[in-house]
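Retro notes, item 3 of 5
We never archived the inputs for the zinc ion complex last cycle. Fixing that now. Sequence and ligand:
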Amino acid sequence: MVIKTFNAFLLFLLSFNSFAFTLNTNFAAAFPGEEVVVNLATHDCDNLPYTNDEILSMASEGVNKFWNRVPTSKLKIRRGNHTSVSNDFESGPLCTSNTNGCTANPALSGQTQILMSCNTNSSNFSSNGVLAVTANVNTSGDNIVGSVILLNNRAGSGLANLSRESFISVLAHEIGHAIGLGHSPVTDSLMYFSNIANRVSLGEDDMDGITYLYPREQPTSCGSVAYIQDDYRGGKPIASLLLVIGLVIVALKSKGKALLS
Ligand SMILES: [Zn+2]
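Structure as it came back at the time:
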């Protein structure tokens, strides 16, 4: 009876606990490996108060401060290199159409991994307050092959007025999009749509989102669980424990369907 009550309570909790994170694509695209590299285009970011090397270092700081410290995620994001790319990355649009989502500019869509690039195209930045735009420009099936982050390098860019810590948070937010996450409506999330000053850590939504896309596999052949109950009789507690596990799995599967629908 105790265990049945616990089952019901667990289901109650699960049914009222909902995901608030969203995904950047409607097919839950994610990088297929466990490591992704962030590169930076070599042209100057002349309207921003940082050198290219400083921007790449801040991206590295951002992923180590936020995304690389989620124990339930297998993904590790690494600092890459200064990368020479075509002028389209400096002055071209990210999307050729925004009807039904971003149709990536074909000139940018051959990228692999994550490429950041300073950009001055007005169609990307409708105002100085649009700090950066990101798209998963290169996908294959439900895998992300490459993502592009364009940083607002127009005169008067709001990026130029941010504190160093906020700049790092913006880069980390855009890298969140680059690995497949959308916006969260929860203000304590890094993936909240608006930049919040002095953010120091991921929110619960961010951790749920990266874990959903990049779950760390659990060991299958080691560890054990002991079931201890004073009135153990005839294996019923074990059966009930298995029922709890089954209900959790069923509940989690049904939550996943709701998320993607
Ligand atoms: Zn965003």
